[in-house]
Amino acid sequence: MKEIAVGLLGFGTVGTGVAKLLIENQSLIQSRVGAKLVLRRIADIDIERDRGIRIEKGVLTTDVESVVDDPDIDIVLEMIGGEDIAKDLILRAIRCGKQVVTANKALLANQGKTIFKEAAEKGVDVAFEASVGGCMPIIKSLREALVGNRIQSMIGILNGTCNYIFTKITDEGLHFEAALEDAKQKGFAEADPALDIEGVDTAHKLAILTSLAYGVEIQLSDIYIEGISRITPLDIEFAQQFGYKIKLLAISKDLGSSIEARVHPTMIPFNNPLSNVSGTLNAITVAGDAVGDVMLYGHGAGMMPTASAVISDTVDIARNLISGSVGRIPLLSFQMDRIRKTRILHIGEICTQYYLRFFAIDRPGVLSKVSGVLGDNNISIKSVHQKGRKTDGAVPVVMVTHVASESSVKKALSEIRSLDVVSGEPLLIRIEEEENDEE
Questions:
Q1: Can you tell me the mean pLDDT for 229-244?
Q2: What is the pLDDT of residues 2-14, one digit of tens each?
Q3: Do residues 251 and 436 lie in contact, with contact meaning Cβ atoms separated by under 8 Å?
Q4: CB-based contacts of 116: which residues, under 8 Å, 6+ apart?
Q5: Could you tell me where in the chain the CATH 3.30.360.10 domains are found?
Q6: Coil, strand or helix at 302
């Protein structure tokens, strides 16, 4: 039986899961592929630590370049992470004519253009299902299952850390800092969680998906990014009173002449399936002109879910090698010469509903002043709530608007901030629901 040799770069959490599946499920994979996938080499800076897997003698090495340069290795799996070293190794593997699998979302979002160009020129495949959504087959869906559709929009929860934090705030009333500390203690958040909580990790994934869905060039700097650290239990409580839950959403829409691509905390109604996605789970809804809405749901991170996606890519490539059909599916879903440049909408140009929260002195005439500012900026109020009453000091007041332009709302908030009856920094949360298109 034909053997296909695999080289693994990186023996950390995900790399360990990949090795575990390749070794322990070798017979199962072989029966599905029609060839034996052999884990020939594993490279890591630490080859002494016990990962709980029996590795044959001679497989482990600290020399990553020897794995990439080995002429007997057919597929290189890059699980190192980061950008500089990973990029150099992937490009080196491509230039050696090897097929590549990676889970490196940051690298692909920031430097994917260079990698995909070289791979196309060399005639090798680069697979990256594990870079977005863990075990959810969103990339395979966009590149294959939905290939006959014009993708109209994608809205998803793509970061388990943020989703876990929102779940703790919602279910237990914890403040952000306490929920984050709980996530760290349970291993759901990194020691430095900035990429997660500031929305950058989600934006990396959205950049990849936007390129695949619409066949456009997009850079991370094109995406509006806003994190979750300003959301409080008070906002969660008010959201529920209005019939919403708050989630960190990745939102991408094809508007024809332009593309929306944004990541920020968002209110969604209770009847939106995404509102029920809790804990560390991920989910994404894709709207296509033929299929309508399709939703994928599952674990977006973790050793085995991510390893499962890596193995899926590895098997796809192995099947291509067996049939001599490498390059059968375009790397970015579209043929390289059909990938277009288009305008990415600035956040100030979007139109949606808004939740506005500010602290105001509790006395007559305050709401009329605030309402006047909103009216002067063509913003119509849908609902108003005030929590508690005080004879001195400020009380929280929240408003939900009808559809308005972001630029008008930002201008109004700047004027509201300067009112002598308002204290502190007003908070804005965007609302995503179907009514937006009807109003």
A1: 94
A2: 999 999 999 999 9
A3: no
A4: 126, 331, 332, 336
A5: 138-299
A6: coil
For CATH 3.40.50.720, the residue range(s) in the chain are: 3-134+303-338
Ranges in the chain annotated CATH 3.30.70.260: 347-437
Which residues contact residue 128 at a Cβ distance below 8 angstroms, ignoring those fewer than 6 apart? Answer: 101, 102, 103, 104, 105, 108, 139, 208, 313
Q: Check if the beta carbon of residue 311 is closer than 8 Å to that of residue 75.
A: no
C-alpha to C-alpha distance for 128 and 106, rounded to whole angstroms: 12
Q: Report the catalytic residues.
A: 205
Give per-residue pLDDT as tens, 163-212. Answer: 999 999 999 999 999 999 999 999 999 999 999 999 999 999 999 999 99
CA angle 108, 109, 110 (to 5 degrees): 95
What is residue 388's predicted lDDT score, i.e. its pLDDT? 62
| CA-based nearest residue to 398, from 172, 293, 188, 246 | 246
Kindly report the CATH number that applies to the domain delimited by 347-437.
Answer: 3.30.70.260
Polymer length of the chain: 439
Fold of the domain built from segment(s) 3-134+303-338: Rossmann fold (3.40.50)
How many Cβ atoms sit within 10 Å of the Cβ of residue 340? Answer: 10
CATH H-level superfamily of 138-299: Dihydrodipicolinate Reductase; domain 2 (3.30.360.10)
Q: Are 244 and 207 in contact (CB under 8 A)?
A: no
d(CA 271, CA 301): 26
Rounded Cα gap, residues 246 and 162, in angstroms: 11
pLDDT at residue number 391: 46
366-398 in b/e burial notation, b at 16+ Cβ within 10 A?
beeebeebbeebebeebeeeeeeeeeeebebbb
pTM over 0.85: yes
Residue 245 structure tokens: 């839950």
Buried b (16+ CB within 10 A) or exposed e, 231-248: bebebbbbbeeeebbbbb
Q: What is the layout of strands, in order, in the sheet containing 75-78?
A: 60-61, 36-43, 3-9, 75-78, 99-102, 126-127
Residues in contact with 373: Cβ distance below 8 Å, sequence separation at least 6, in sequence order: 412, 415, 416, 419
- Residue whose entry in the numeric block shows the structure tokens 């929260």: 357
